[in-house]
Amino acid sequence: MNGVSQVRRLAGVDVVPSLAARRVLGVLAFAAATAFGAYVAVPLPGTIVPVTLQTLFVVLSGLLLGPWLGAASQATYIAVGLMGAPVFAGGLGPLALVGPTGGYLLAFPAGAWLAGRVAGPARTGALGWLRLAAGAALGSSVILLSGAARLSLLVGGPLPALELGVLPFLAGDGVKLCLTLLAAGRLRSRTLGLF
Q1: Which domain holds residue 139?
Q2: Is residue 1 part of a domain?
Q3: What is the CATH classification number for the domain harbouring 124?
Q4: Fewer CB within 10 Å: C terminus or N terminus of the chain?
Q5: Are 148 and 159 spatial neighbours (Cβ–Cβ below 8 Å)?
Q6: pLDDT tens-digit profile of 82-134?
């Protein structure tokens, strides 16, 4: 069995021949992965916003599913949280959207869409890697800036919001960006045509 056949079998293409069904499964899988990422939360000293793995899955959803399905996966994640499921960091329900992390959460669909849109279709070579890195960085940046904008309403302005909601996360986001690029670089060409 060659590598493409093996990936197709593992991804469920042979089991789920319907493209629409595979798309729904991809959206649900990334919504679930983002919920899982919320539970990998590490509090940082000096800020009320924890570090989570969510942005890794948000950006990866856009890079692997494409802009629209990536955004749909994140809208699904938020909808599940709005219905009361404890999928947001800290186990909070819908109140998380009006709290200090609300701006980050509400930007997840836009971050996934932007990452997928800028990265575009899977390409090889330097241009492919450059677009992938640009998409991942811009998707992550949208989330950080939206989070800081919301946080500024709670902490007294943009400067404290940048100090509490952006600067402490730059190093961690850099690590998550590298992990995202490694995963996307390996998986994008193999998942091409699955969704």
Answers
A1: 11-191
A2: no
A3: 1.10.1760.20
A4: N
A5: no
A6: 999 999 987 778 888 888 999 999 999 999 999 999 998 877 777 888 999 99
